[in-house]
Amino acid sequence: MRSAFWAAATLGVVLGGSSPVPVAADTSEVDTAHTVHIKDFAFVPKRLRIRPGETVRFVNGDDEAHTVTAVDKSFDSAGLDSDRSWNHVFAKAGTYEYFCELHPYMKGTIEVTR
Amino acid sequence: MKRAAFLDHVSWTGAGIVWTLGAAGVLRAIPAEAAASHTGGFSFVQISDSHIGFTRPENPDVAATLQKTVDAINALPQQPAFVMHTGDITHLATPAQFDAAKQILSTLRAPLVTLPGEHDVIGTPANYFAAFGNADAPKGWSSWDRGGIHFLSLVNVFDFEISGKLGDEQLAFAENDLAAQKASTPIVVFAHVPLFALFPDWGWTTIDGTRLIAALRRFDAATVLNGHVHQVAQHTDGNIRFATASATAYPQPAPGTAPKPGPLMVPHEALLGRLGYRSVTIEPRRGLQYTDRALA
Prior knowledge:
- The structure holds 2 protein chains of 2 kinds.
- Chain A is mainly beta.
- Chain A is 10% helix and 34% strand.
- Chain A is built from 1 helix and 8 strands, in the order H-E-E-E-E-E-E-E-E.
- Residues 1-39 of chain B have low confidence and may be disordered.
- Chain B has a single domain (3-294), classed as Metallo-dependent phosphatases (Purple Acid Phosphatase, chain A, domain 2).
- The interface between A and B is medium-sized, with 18 and 21 residues.
């Protein structure tokens, strides 16, 4: 689900304006927003299907810090504090397994298909 | 919270293991005054889990509570031989957080020794090594002798899977190192994540810790001191005693008392009673003893 708040934040990134959250350098071309919420030590949804070139925003709604780290290390949010978010563009088709480095039992999958 | 209440609070039963405090032959808490009166005995201090950079309501000023811990240690009548920080010095392993932690810890009168927690090596251990790297421990682990004790400082967060992990290379180092020691030499092992199965459901264990425990069995007295769980939990297995330490940042729930681990909100006035440090002494006839002391 996509809230007006996050859509606005995304727009800020596109226009190069200031953003309330730290964003990665690879988020300049945002066309479709998908959000994975981190809540109660879990990625929700655990499995997300998107198209190549789409962006996923990971939002940490927990009291605890987490990371969004690819199992193959192809992407890594670094430490993501409470109430912070991180964007990543999935350019190529494929199945991307990821986890939290601090709580490795937290796992998720992004499926990128044409 | 008074010290007695603090100690009372940390005695609990869980996961089929009975946790004891002050029982004969286990871990005795001795009054601070008694510890201070034994001048000449060798002592060191353990601190843990400072999480510099954490700003949540559970403790909005983790720098202040770390400084308070340092001040309390500096005020000890007999300065410890060293202060060991058993990891999670920072919350998110950023250079700025390491700098801030270093500034506070540099005010310790006693020498500082550190090992990393999983929060100190998020993404890469490079920032940890840049701030606290030690030529004697190029890979993070090391051993040394001091005060008649053989010390082993281990890192079980470099390959942090579901639980702590030491890995084959480090286990081989530890096994060879221990094999060279006499059985009568007291052994003290430090690591961030508990080396015993404290609460595997929350990852509070080291998956290959049993190999290290096997190497410790032949010693008359081995003590394993860990952090990670932000509370004092104790366990005895033959001649091996295990104890996790309080944090200087914030408490965590006792195992199984919450859906997940994480910062535990306590009333503001109770916070200092849940944070603290551990002072450890060794004397010829009494052996190794320690006291967990709350900040209030």
